[in-house]
Each structure stands twice: as C-alpha cells, then as structure tokens.
Amino acid sequence: MRIVVLVKPVPDTTGQEHLGPDLRVDRMADPAVLNANDEYALEAALKLREAAGEGTVTLLTMAPAHAPEALRRALAMGADGGVLVTDPALEGADTLTTVRVLAAALARLEYDLVLAGSDTSDGGAGIVGAGVAALAGLPYLSAAARIEPTAGRVRVHRISPTGYDLLEAPLPAFIVATQALGEPRYPSLRGIMAARAKQLDVWSLVDVGLDPASVGGAQSTTRVTATRQPPAREATRVIHEPAAVAAVQVADFLAARRLI
Amino acid sequence: MTASNQPAAYPSAAYRLTDEQRALRDAVRSLARDRVAPRAAEIDRSGTFPTDLRELLATQDILALPFPAVYGGLDADLLTICLAIEELSAACATTGLILAVHELASLPILQSGSEAQQARWLPDLAAGRRLIAFALTEAGAGSDAGAVAMRARRDGDEYVLDGTKRFISHGSVADLIVVFALTDPAAERYRNLSCFVVEVPTPGFSIGRLEHKMGLRGSPTAELLFDGVRVPADGRLGAEGEGFAIAMRTFERSRPGIAAQAVGIAQGALDVATRYATERIQFGRPIGDQQLVQALLADMEAATASARALLYTACTAIETGEGDPARWAALCKLVAGDAAMRVTTDAVQVLGGYGYLEDFPVERMMRDAKVTQLYEGTQQIQRLVIARSMLAAQG
What we know:
The structure holds two protein chains of two kinds. By secondary structure, chain A is of the alpha/beta class. Chain A is 28% helix and 24% strand. In chain A, strand 7 (140-150) and strand 8 form a beta hairpin. Chain B has helices at residues 6-9, 19-46, 51-59, 78-91, 93-112, 115-127, 243-279, 291-320, 325-351, 362-370, 379-394; strands at 132-135, 151-155, 158-169, 176-182, 193-199, 205-210, 221-232, 236-237, 281-282, 285-286. In chain B, a hairpin with a 2-residue loop joins strand 9 (281-282) and strand 10.
C-alpha cells in the first residue's frame, strides 16, 4: 500500500501570531508546527502500512522553504519520506492555488491512497482535500472514522449526523481523516534519530509542471480586507461542588440563558 | 608553580547542543508535559511506582538511550541522557529517576561487563523489558561505601551471597540487581569487594521493608535480603576485588544524572513560580510587579541556569576526557543539588501559603529536591571528592 499524506506546517498557535502587510499570516515570523489534524491522517496512514506489513507513507506539502523542520516530526512519527513543493511565487497563494499545486505534485507520485486532515488550524477552509481529489479525479471519501482496505478497494465509515455511512471505492482513492481514527503517536526517540536520515524532496513550481506566472500568489482570487481580534473572554465561573450539586447549578445556569 | 601547569589544573569543555540533542530533548519535553506531568501529583500522593510511565519510557525508547546500538540502544552520549532525565524530572522527579537509576545500575555492565555479559543483559535493558537496580549501600555502609559487610563466598562455579542491602532505589521492582559484596575480607580495604549481577526472583532473595520517604514517594526504596543467594561465577562483573573501583567508576557517569534530575526539579518549580507571579493579584496588581518577588525569581533563574551550564559542561568534559571525571561529576551534583533545594524552597515562598498546599506542585518539588543533596553521595562526600581531586592535581 503506497500512501500519500497531505500535510501542512502551520504557525504554532500557542504564541501570538504575526500578520504581514497584506494582513495574511507571516509564515516566516512564527515557528511552524505540523497541523494537528494532519497528524491524525498520518497516524491512520501509518496504521494502514503496519497492518499491511508493507508499503510506504509519503508526505506531500506546499509550504515556505523553512518547512522541513516541522515535517521532521511527521518523519519521526514514521513517514518514509516526503515532497515539499516550495516556490517564491507561491507567497500569498490562495486555496485554489494550493489545490492546483498539490494536484500537480500528486500526478508525479505513485500511490494507492491519499489521506488528508479535515482542515488546517490557520486557513481553516477545509476544502483543499476535496479540491485535490476533484482535480486528480479520485473517489472522495470524507469524514472517515474508520478505514478498511480490501483487495483493490477501500471502505470508509463516514461520520454522519445519525451515525455513519458506509462508502466503498476502488483504489486509488482520496480519504479525509477525522480524529475518530485515533490519537496520533508520539515520535519515539529512535524515530526522531532515524528521521534525520530520511529524504525530503524539494520541488519548485516548474518541477510540478506549473507556470509560476499562472498560479502564483499574484493570481490569488481572494484577499484579506481586514482582521480583528476575537472578543476577550468574559470572566469564567468555576463551580467547586460535588458532582450532583454542580450538575444542578450548571443546568440552572444554562436554563437561565435559555440554552437548554 | 608555573603558568604552563594551569591547563591541567583548570580543565574546561565547551558544549553546544547538537540539532539531534535539541530534537530529542524537545520530544522528551512534550512527552513529559502531556503524559508525565498530569500523573505527578497522584504518584506522589499514592506512593505507587508508575508502571504505566515505565512502559511509556520503554515504548518511546527513552530507556534505550544509554545502551549501544548493537544491543538495541540509542548510543546516546552522557549529555543526551541527562537532557532526558532533566525534562522528565521537571514534570515528575520519580519518573526522571526511572531513567537515572536504569542508567546508574547498567553502568557496571556497560563499563566492566564482558561481551558475553553485555549480550546477555543489555538487549532486555535497552528495550525496557527488564529494570535494573544498583545495590551498594548497607546499614553500616553509606557514605563509607568501603565498609560493605555483605559476603560473597566462592563455592565451585558459584558465589553464595549473604547479607542485607538498604535504601536501594527500584530494589523491589527491578529484574536485575547489581550487588557489591565482600569476596576477600582479609584483603586491603577498597580491594576486597566484588560486583555481581543477580537475576531476581531467585531462591534466598527477598524484599525487606519499603521505606516511607519525604519525597520521590513513587519510587520504591527497598531493603534487599540475601540469604544464601547463589550466583553463577559468570555473573561477576570484572575481577574479584575490583568491586569498589567499579562502583566509583559508575559514579563518574551516574552523578551527572542526579544533577540533571536536580536541574529539572529546579526548572519545574521555577516555571510554576514564574507563572504564579504573573497571575496572583495582591495590592491590586500581579505579585510579579513587586521587586522583592522579582529578586526571588531572578535568583532562582540564576541558580538554575548556572547549575545547568555546569552540568552540560561536565557531561561534555566527562565524555571527551578533559580533566578528572570524578571531579566533574561531583561538581555538577553538588551545585545542582543545592540549586534545586534553594530554588524549590523559594518557589514555595513565591506561592506563599498556597505553595505549602498539595494543591500546587512546588511543595512536592521541594520534598523531591532534598534527596538530590543526599543520594549518590551526600553533598559532603562530593566536596571531599572535589577537594581531593584538586589537591592530587597539585602533587
């Protein structure tokens, strides 16, 4: 089973994020970490590879050139290698550009399955996976709570409001992971040491067959017009009572606000 | 004395963490924060050895750090091992001690074991399948380690061990015990001990009492009773009579581990105190605005940073063979142990009455810190080691 996992280095949200003059996140100003939802997709991919007893897990990302350090964690978790598509022309790229670049890179890889996280903690659009699947012409299986590969096919339990839907598709296919697939592993120290020897290929736009003039940030179809801080959180009330008493107080609190 | 004598008298070593050391440290730090810290208060309260965290350290290859790659280890240098102990100890000193003791007690095998002995025991130790304890101390042989009274009598292809060990960390949870015993009572002091690896359980071996301690309450400290315990002759490490030398060589690499534990405890307490100083409002503003509180925090930071710098320097010097390793080991243990005691005491002071409650971790850290001034040689013994090394260098 050859699996490609789409991942994205995102600004470390534990700190104050920095905005550039175009009001977009300045990706060079903050330390990048692996997008948390991508770790669930990677964990699912690693489990599939382990269950199959063979195969490869390859990371694919589009990011600024300083991304490799954030990808080391993914390699330390057990990914075999990765591809970083990076190009100065991609600065300020919008979602559509991201989709086109990832699909073009994907076309240059051999795979049976592509996995992606449900969204990223920075952009939060949540549509890159669907876009890439559409451009690549892959069956799209979203909101996966469970992934069962069979001979030449894959079955997914897709979370629905009432339980789950059973989806089945031939390989190659595209799956969007959810946190229901299971907690990502911690990289072991052995994995961290091994990660430093793993290969990360760096591709430019030309390498993936795209003209920098046609997909660059300059072609972005969206722009940020304004930003504002979320309102400060109001004072928190913490109830220190035995559970039975606390439950009544919580219920009263919610009822008073017509929330229940 | 001429100026050309100076380099030998003032050895130094520069350290700079490698990318790999930073990556390993960060990994242990995040594991400690997410998985170890939430367990620390309960481990202390219940006084129960955290078998779940022992498993975690094994799974994450943290216990594999001190061992050669050929036996499944990670071949880590002393500084890397100490970084891991430090990060674990910042969250929970009992958990940091799991790695520290594992390293301490493996050192006699690593340093003095034959190839056959290493092949026999190290793979299980590196994988964390077995834990190992170091049994030197006895009721009458504490600081005076040469006064060991436990006997080992040769009987054909075996030795027969009789006696009692005391204050043995992990003594009740270890699968292998490194034991020091008297093989030749007639021989000169310090040349009459031998070192053995005892696989337990084994007939004649039993656990005596478990100590109730002020700190490190989750780490079992056991009395070990040996009543005619038979050890095959190939369970002896090194030559007969070499035991005391093996023990002393061990401390050259294990004392930095205790210094690392101390630095970790100090940093853990400092982190809590600093955060508290920004959150606790008195006189209408955070107590961190008060200069007297700032002075406490600054002194705590200075003590912790100095101890850490000396520890990392000592690890590097011991690894590269610059200067007397025993002196380096004693220096960093002395400075770090005292720093940990002072910093944790001051952390309780910053938190005031709340610091005295078990609701906050600093009182636990203060209790845990004390033992770093006591075990693997009291601070007084460290001073003797340091001064003797200094004076010997003059001669």
